[in-house]
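Students often ask why we bother predicting the structure of a whole assembly rather than each chain alone. The short answer is interfaces. A chain on its own may look different once its partners are present, and contacts between molecules only exist in the joint model. In this exercise we take two input lines together and write out one structure for the complete complex. Read the inputs first and try to guess which parts will touch.
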Amino acid sequence: MEQGAILPLRAHLNRVAYFLRLPRVSLGIGLFAVLLALVTLPCLKLLAATLIWDAADIRLSPAARPGAFTLFHWTRVFASDLSDALFYRPLLHSLATSVSIGLLSVGLGAGLAWLTTRTDLPGRRLVAALATVPYILPSYTYALAWLTLFRTERLGGAAGLFRFATGTDPPEWLAYGFVPIVVTLTLHYAPFTYLLVAGALASVDAQLEEAGEVLGASRAMILGRITFPLVLPALLSGFILTFSRALGTFGTPYFLGAPVRYFTLPTTIFSSMVTRTFATGYILAVVLIMVSALVIYANQRVLGTRKSFVTIGGKGFRAARTPLGPWGFPATLASGGLVLVAVVVPLMLLAWQTLMRYPDDYSLGNLTLHYWIGPSNPDLAEGEMGILRNSAILGGAWNSIRLSVIVAAVGGLIGILVGYVVVGGRGGWLARLLEQQAFLPYLVPSIAFGALYLSIFARSLGPLPALYGTFLILVLACVAKNLPFSARAGTSAMLQVAGELEEAAVVAGASWLRRFGRIVLPLSLRGSLAGFLLAFVTTMRELSLIILLVTPETRTLTTMTFRYTEQGYAQFADAIILLIVVLVLAGDLLARRLGRVELTT
Amino acid sequence: MSDDGLEVRGLSKRFGDVPAVADASVTVPAGAFLTLLGPSGCGKTTLLRMLAGLEFPDAGLIRMGGRTVFSDREGLFVPPGERGVGLVFQSYALWPHMTVFENMAFGLRVRRQDRATIAEAVRGALAYMQLEGLEGRYPQELSGGQQQRVALARMLVARPKVFLMDEPLSNLDARLRMDMRGELKRIHRDASATTVYVTHDQAEALTMATHVAVMRAGRIEQVGSPREIYRRPASLFVADFVGSPGINRIAGRLVAEGGVAALETPAGRFPTTAPANLAGREVVGAVRPEDLELSEPDGGHRVEVYAVLPGGGETVVQFHLGGERWSLKTSKEVAWEAGTWRGLSVPPHVLLLYDRESERLIHPAPAGRKVESHG
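Now the answer. The structure tokens for the assembled complex follow.
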């Protein structure tokens, strides 16, 4: 046989043509180009912008020549008189708060996880159901509730409940800065570590613990020497991921830190943007991305090396519950109290605030529905109408819903397409490349991602008009930032659809569009609905990502809450956030319903 | 051969560095039932998928039904839908969101047939597969056997010229599998379509096929009729893979003895029908269990009975010979006890001789089409 004989060129061209015509290949290349434009390009553009004089820089330096190369911004941020205020102090604050939040979240989350999965705690089902709620709420919900409690008159605006009740201002360290930021964000993030650790604990077979018990080990020894090492990877991962999320969060440190000039990296980025020193903001964004990427890498290492032994299970699986005995009552009290503090109290405070005619008078006689349904009254909030009849706010609500639905739909479709290419690509280079691209936004903190989009789409770009101020830029930013999640959801949905189902249609002679429309899409949609709702919920509460991109025409509920807080109209701000909470909880509830349906069928 | 059968020549496919199919060639006439038989991972499914057009071969030629559907030299690749093939998957691949009717109508709708024709064709196929009344059901609502029938009906309704089947019976229980074998033979006979059938079950391959191709590590070891494959396996691998209990083997060397060669082994000397000029070759002798005869202890080679396994119709007797476990299969009554001694005789004409080095058959002369080996 003539093996190794040179094939005619036509045969090679034919092969290339065949592969390019394969839907997975052409689609994969197309998606790669889209992701390149949505993710990688902004990153490069941002980096470039830090090295070039901007027109606005003439205020900073007489040497500025717009468009020319310079290292001015980098030296200004890292090695100038301003460095301390621009970079080192915010960095220190960011690290201090994020590390504290990470540690406290792990402690709180792990404790609660152990109580609900491994003990006979009374009411553990209720605790478990409520424990995840804080994570679903927008992260700054707690900041606003905290302000309702501890706002001081000295820093402008109406005083909070503390002053109304005691007659004196609370100490500043309690009202603003490090302590409140850590406390409120811990409440928000603890459920995340709770979920991680509870998942790990649930997968530890009680027989492993019983084996220790049979050998005569004490409860403490079993907990310390068997259970703890088994869930250690989950604990580490919980710390690392919480740290990274806290690092990129903007709302809470802004509401609770900015009034006393306690700046973190995200809030410094924001003020750099507001004061039009863009390059400074971009450089800080680069730093945030680097730290975040490093942290994610660390997490991969942790999970990569130790994940293996958490997945113990098998046939004889049984979860034993430790009887709490005399500790049952205090444990119930503590966990119940925690849920109360984390879920019920903040929402009650916010609700109460919205019903107060004057924001510093907590007496019953001050209650009103004006800020919900009242007509314009020039004596109150400069004549703004109640939010449910206020066209500006309803417009914002419409924007929020529209944005969330579009982002969820577009992101969901892209996710399914990415999943289609990745799952069908059998680990080929295109599939891998696409997976990595889709993961990239995970490394970029939200506020930095907003900065990226501001940097690239503020001006017209080739055939693309300037997108700043359009609704489209919000859609693009949110879709791109959600890519890691939508790609993962799409991939897992696609894994449920056996490749043979499509191949059966290939053999029947169906075109790709027909196969995708009639077979692949309908089958993967079932697995994608929960992911769709998750994207809806995430977008609905998004603030950090879009705060830099929103203009009055495109404002959403979250950015309106932000503006009202800035202006001191706590009633409006809180009413809007309650509106968001209702929408978000409804979405989440629906997602859980669908999730359960999916599990049982 | 007739020109409208199936011809595969020099077909190869690698996945990365792993050769899944290497230089496979097989030709069968139209209407043949070809089984691709081999252990898992031998490349039989990849070969089938290349026939269907689901994999793009690296090299080679495929002709079916009188036309070339793939040729590396001509730069020709006919897409799956235009090859006139029908494919039944191991998992059936019934679309779970479509009813039985919709599943079967899909291929016809793709070809833009009108409503009445589709309904007619589907009804016909349903009746043929005894599935009447199930057209409104979803696949999940059917039993495994019914799903299998729907998968076959879906293939039949499009009237393909070539049937491709990838281990279609492996998900059925033993009884149902027996029934479906008969069903598949009936379908093949009625449609007289060339059929390629992938399986790792040698009994299935032998009972259903007109042609069997045994594959190993991407290569076709032997192509032949079931009888040829069973009686004259071209290599030790084929000899081992086909038949249950496995073929008995003993290593030795050929010596000349009275004009023919005899097999000299540590367990004694066995006469063969091989010519004396083969003397001196290092070989492995192989004998099917049903070809052996055990007699009174004074005749033949003395062996000690290790275990007796009565199986109803036939009985297997195990013993050791030359360090190897041997089996004898007989349909006669056996009253021997384990531990007793018997005489073993190996009739010379049933002894297959394989070259020790290449493990290929040297005597009797390999049957059927010569399988060229490259390397």
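Check your guess against this: The helical segments of chain B are 44-52, 100-110, 115-128, 144-157, 174-191, 202-208, 226-231, 236-241.
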